[in-house]
Amino acid sequence: MTLSDLAQQTRFIDGVGQAELVASGEVSASELLDAAIERNAAFNPTVNAINITWLDHARELAKKFKPSAEKKFGGVPFVLKDLGAPYAGQHMSNGNIALKNNNYIAPSNSLLVQRFIDSGLTIFGRTNSPEFGSVPVTEPLAWGPTRNPFDPSRTSGGSSGGSAAAVAAGIVPMAHASDGGGSIRIPAACCGLVGLKTSQGRISLAPFGDEANFSVHFAVTRTVRDTAALLDAVHGPGVGDRVIAPAPVRPYINEVGVEPGKLRIGFIDHHPTGAKIDDECVQAVRDTCKLLESLGHHVENTWPQALDQADFAGKFTAMWSTNMAVGINTLSQMLGRETTKDDVELMNWTMAQYATSKTATDYAQSVYSSMIFRRLVQQWWADGWDLLVTPTAAQLPLPLGTIRNMPDDPMAALRIAGDWIPLTPPFNTTGQPAINVPLQWTRDGIPVGIQIVGAYGREDLLIRVASQLEIAQPWAHHTPNL
């Protein structure tokens, strides 16, 4: 399939750039949308990134679009992750086969989805997600695997793997994503994108989510300026939020290109449990630290010692399994009937059943351990360090099928996942912001993710440093050959 001139010309233009085209009158919102739909038809059969569409509805919205200064992304095509982002009148499955087969229709918008709409984005579909977002790859039984645009034999990561593949393939310039244990940063690392996990309480999860839990919602993007501009459009509290991050002193877009000053930066380039870490991932951390030193920062081999706790995951199993049990109870409400074992993938059903063996005291102890861990880790920043650099994943993007339902050992997939991504979940527990920057690539053209972690509430500093790195070592030329 040959792309039209507009579909080809706008394929790798970021969201801010596409909005400028519409604002200037060079292209219309309808033309931009049709270009994205054309690219979806060309590339999605290879990567399986977008699993649900509402094209006629989106085309009607694009026809009615009128440029406005308040609409920062006026006319820019966009997609929602198929997980926890209800869009009124449209199908959502949360990666679950029962919701898919029942054609569940969301009755209303979440607050974040409404803010996406208010920013001028034209939403035309949903991206693939593992069932309930429980694993860091995107291979649900309901929709099949999403493939990495840089190597279709590998995972695009998860749980926002469909969104990352859609952006990396050049179907859309940015896409909604969420992160409960690394699910923005991991797929961004696998697909060579910018992926910011915001501070707990930075973006409201109203009306159905809880900001005090592990998960945050935001996006994956191609450029730092898109991350900053989109964050300006959607951050802020909602009614009833339990956690509210401190307001920024100025718009995040104003941090792009600003010198961050000389920072004190630590790094960790080993696996906390002593498990294998790929040479490319170790070298990526060291090369990034050398780059940061060349930019005038003080870099030292130091890190929060609490990250070396080998039993990190075990301390919070009661919380994670209870979250899954609550999710399955919510599934029953959405289906309008009791959920059965046949409605849910084996590893998720097993995790929820595990929660029934735990007591209220077990859960409270898990919450208490989370609090202690959060304070121990954040103390490192309070002691005067500005940023921490780590590999986003301990290995390169995994071959498809590595993490899967295993009937003989249903929890094996989660152990494999834990070995692969040991350094993203801790910062969901601490609530700190962390960003993946696509600085490193293998000789074969596979992205290697670098995670940079800031103190709670310091997305501004992460954006400044990510922008500094983007200028010093650009990544826009890294595009997949599809």
Structure description:
The protein is an alpha+beta fold and 482 residues long. It has one domain: Alpha-Beta Complex (Amidase signature (AS) enzymes). Helix content is 38%, strand content 14%. It is built from 17 helices and 13 strands. It has helices at residues 5-9, 15-23, 29-47, 55-64, 97-101, 111-118, 161-168, 185-191, 224-234, 279-294, 312-315, 317-335, 346-355, 360-382, 412-420, 426-430, 459-472, and strands spanning 50-53, 77-81, 122-127, 147-148, 151-155, 174-179, 194-197, 216-221, 264-267, 298-300, 387-391, 434-441, 447-454. The strands form three sheets. It has an eight-stranded mixed beta sheet with strand order 6-8-7-12-13-11-9-10, with helices on both faces. A three-stranded mixed beta sheet has the order 1-3-2. A hairpin with a 5-residue loop joins strand 12 and strand 13 (447-454). Helix 9 packs antiparallel against helix 17 (459-472), helix 12 (317-335) crosses helix 13 (346-355) and helix 12 (317-335) packs across helix 14 (360-382).
Outline:
The protein contains 17 helices and 13 strands. By secondary structure, it is an alpha+beta fold.
Give the topology, please:
Layout: H1 5-9, H2 15-23, H3 29-47, E1 50-53, H4 55-64, E2 77-81, H5 97-101, H6 111-118, E3 122-127, E4 147-148, E5 151-155, H7 161-168, E6 174-179, H8 185-191, E7 194-197, E8 216-221, H9 224-234, E9 264-267, H10 279-294, E10 298-300, H11 312-315, H12 317-335, H13 346-355, H14 360-382, E11 387-391, H15 412-420, H16 426-430, E12 434-441, E13 447-454, H17 459-472
Parallel strand pairs: 2-3, 9-10, 9-11
Antiparallel strand pairs: 1-3, 4-5, 6-8, 7-8, 7-12, 11-13, 12-13
